[in-house]
């Protein structure tokens, strides 16, 4: 009997020793299902996080194509790292947006990706998150108050200046005899960071007498931007007979879609549309019969979500990230598109589209392998 008790005690000590201690960087970790993950090369802050990281992605825009793709990029990359990712959309309602961010802070998320916060409140909105030690990455958000910023936060943007240069450069090519191109401008602001950045380039084109602004049209109904702009442009067309408008510039593709609908409904084929941003719906409209939508400058919205999540993961790992980062813009012309071109295969006709190793680390590939992404 004593021998049996001694054997049981020895086995208990062995089993207890096997389960003792935490998982260091370069060791193994267990999933909830008990599968062993080889985390050799993964930073200790990532490998040893019990239960994984929880991330809130909060977007202050309507649920348009660009938003859906951005959120999909952030979610898929986060889940590939083993993170739990929750997404929230505020429909351009600033009060609701601030409420959602505050709720995420109070719920104790480990990190946040914030999209399209406005300059007049973003500092105060995000300061409590920084004070709590949360990791934050922002997109198209200006964070400044009385000259102060939040240096703990990495801010990302599309290269809005290049987006404007590429699109307005195409409009400038429409000039006849050096005369300024007469433009109906689809824009709203100020106070919307990406559109404000694009506006600085537009103003330069005006000052250089390359363009002449006939009208500025923006939405008032952010639940139906396309329909709103279609109605407004439709009403304007009667005042501008053929030959009096040289181009429509869409500083945001949701507004360009509305202009396209208005021109199609009115049977107007005399006014080219040149825009910023891209989606499957945009490309389908560009390819429609009698479409005058000639080109658009864009950054892959899914890639924006991916890169923002990589930056957040590096912050979780305690690795250095830049203060700000701009994503490269591309020009997509109607003539580039094949009948089957879509967001998944656009890289086949636009060199470098949707591809970036920015902030991708070898340890991230290890996580992707283990989480099957």
From TrEMBL:
Protein name, UniProt field: Monosaccharide ABC transporter substrate-binding protein, CUT2 family
GO cellular component entries: outer membrane-bounded periplasmic space
Membrane-spanning ranges: none
Gene3D superfamilies: 3.40.50.2300
GO molecular function: carbohydrate binding
Signal sequence, start to end: 1-20
Source species: Natronincola peptidivorans
Localization per Swiss-Prot or TrEMBL: Cell envelope
Similarity field: Belongs to the bacterial solute-binding protein 2 family.
Start and end residues of each Periplasmic binding protein domain: 56-320
Broad class of where this protein is predominantly found: other
Signal listed as a keyword: yes
Presence of keyword Signal: yes
Superkingdom of origin organism: Bacteria
Keywords per UniProt: Signal
């Amino acid at each position: 009997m004593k021998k049996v008790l001694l054997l049981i005690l020895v086995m208990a000590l062995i089993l207890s020793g096997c389960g003792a201690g935490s998982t260091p960087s370069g060791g193994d970790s267990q999933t909830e299902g008990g599968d062993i993950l080889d985390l050799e090369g993964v930073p200790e802050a990532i490998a040893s996080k019990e239960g994984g990281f929880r991330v809130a992605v909060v977007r202050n825009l309507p649920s348009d194509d660009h938003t859906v793709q951005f959120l999909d990029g952030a979610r898929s990359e986060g889940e590939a790292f083993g993170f739990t990712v929750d997404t929230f959309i505020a429909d351009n309602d600033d009060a609701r947006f601030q409420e959602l961010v505050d709720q995420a802070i109070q719920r104790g998320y480990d990190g946040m990706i914030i999209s399209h916060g406005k300059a007049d409140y973003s500092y105060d909105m995000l300061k409590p998150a920084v004070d709590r030690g949360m990791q934050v990455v922002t997109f198209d958000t200006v964070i400044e108050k009385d000259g102060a910023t939040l240096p703990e936060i990495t801010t990302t943007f599309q290269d809005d200046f290049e987006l404007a240069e590429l699109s307005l450069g195409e409009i400038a090519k429409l000039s006849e005899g050096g005369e300024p191109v007469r433009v109906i401008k689809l824009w709203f602001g100020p106070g919307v960071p990406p559109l404000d950045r694009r506006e600085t380039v537009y103003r330069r084109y005006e000052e250089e007498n390359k363009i002449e602004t006939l009208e500025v049209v923006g939405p008032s109904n952010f639940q139906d931007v396309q329909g709103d702009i279609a109605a407004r442009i439709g009403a304007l067309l009667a005042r501008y007979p053929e030959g009096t408008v040289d181009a429509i510039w869409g500083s945001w593709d949701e507004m360009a879609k509305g202009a396209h609908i208005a021109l199609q409904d009115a049977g107007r084929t005399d006014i080219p549309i040149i825009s910023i941003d891209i989606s499957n719906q945009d490309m389908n409209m560009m390819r429609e019969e009698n479409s005058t939508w000639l080109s658009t400058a864009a950054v892959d919205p899914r890639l924006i979500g991916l890169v923002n999540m990589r930056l957040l993961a590096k912050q979780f790992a305690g690795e250095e990230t830049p203060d700000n980062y701009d994503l490269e813009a591309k020009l997509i012309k109607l003539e580039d598109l094949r009948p089957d071109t879509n967001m998944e295969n656009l890289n086949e006709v636009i060199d470098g589209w949707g591809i970036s190793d920015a902030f991708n680390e070898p340890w991230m590939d290890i996580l992707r392998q283990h989480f099957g992404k």
